Amino acid sequence: MIKTISNEYLKVKINTHGAEINSVKSTDGLEYIWSGDKKYWARHAPILFPIVGRLKDNQYTYDDKTYKMGQHGFARDMEFNVLDQGSDWIDLQLVSNEETKKMYPFAFKLVIHYELDDHKLSTNINVFNTDTKEMYFSVGAHPAFNVPLVKDGSEQYDDYSVKFANKGTYDQIQFDVPYANLEKVEKIELDQPIQLSHELFYDDAKVVEIKNKEFTTILSNDVSDHGVSMTAYDIEYGGLWSAKDAPFVCLEPWWGIADDVHTDGKIEHKVGINKISPDKKFTAKYDLLFF
Questions:
Q1: Phi, psi at residue 50, to the nearest 5°?
Q2: Which of 32, 118, 170, 242 could form a disulfide with 201 if both were Cys (CB 3.0 to 4.6 A apart)?
Q3: Cα 181 to chain centroid, rounded
């Protein structure tokens, strides 16, 4: 089911299946979110939970039991219920059930809060541990933005670049696709914009370790004044990704990462894993500013 929130500047459509943003459109008709054309990638902006990336052999162990789970977890493929909604905000909830416990042996509530404020869309991903034991999880978002944004032929993919407000030297995670290889970490300077090209993503995503900082990434171009700025809070990793030759780019805030190629498979030891105690809450927050 599609739910809509709006204000005088933006109209946002959210699918209760996966609590996924399907559209962000300005009042003058500019669509920012990727269409989900299955020729390239059939999603728009999935929520990633309770893992980010892929598990080695699509499995992990907990309490001497083995569990199977696909890439990015199961939340993106499950139906959320609407807890409450106003004209410019909405809360959607997924509660653990018999189906989730076959993949993930923890009781939880996952509440996604979307709220508009002028040209900004805020997202809070709230993870509640409703179990009697400590809960291990990762969480993230995977929003895809049209590139180019303007479809009249005046803009091209390589007119766009990604700039970083938080300049400096970061660790770029290398991958033995689809797994991270932490023995191959390289340094990258984010003082200059990264010019987009399709070739940039031919060897998969570009991922840097942020180490729990506020981090702002800006997608813009040299032709028009349109773009998107993402600010993520206490973020662990940031990713850039696009499907091969696709007319979009994903700006991805992650509180977790794919398994390291050398993992022992135990979820307690998983790289980038988060842990919360019973009756506690973890909130992952990011803002999108559309211009």
A1: -95, 15
A2: 242
A3: 21
Q: Rg for the chain (alpha carbons), in Å?
A: 18
Q: Judge whether residue 134 has pLDDT over 90.
A: yes
What is the rounded distance in angstroms from the CA atom of residue 51 to the CA atom of residue 75?
9
Binned at pLDDT 50, 70 and 90, residue 131 comes out as very high
Mind listing the pLDDT tens digit for each residue in 102-115?
999 999 999 999 99
Q: Do 110 and 259 contact (CB within 8 A), yes or no? A: no
- Domain locations along the chain: 2-290
Count CB neighbours of 278 within 10 A. Answer: 12
CA dist., res. 9 & res. 3, Å (int): 17
SS3 53: coil
Q: Which amino acid makes up residue 234?
A: D
How would DSSP label each residue in 31-45? B-B----TTT-S-SS
For the four alpha carbons of 150, 155, 157 and 159, in that order, the dihedral sign comes to negative
pLDDT value at position 222? 85
Report the pLDDT averaged over residues 146-159: 94
Whether the link from the prior residue into 148 is cis, omega within 30° of 0, is yes
pLDDT reading at 66 higher than 90:
yes
Give 248-285 as a DSSP string: EEEEEEEES-PPBTT--SBGGG-TT-EEE-TT-EEEEE
CATH for 2-290 is 2.70.98.10
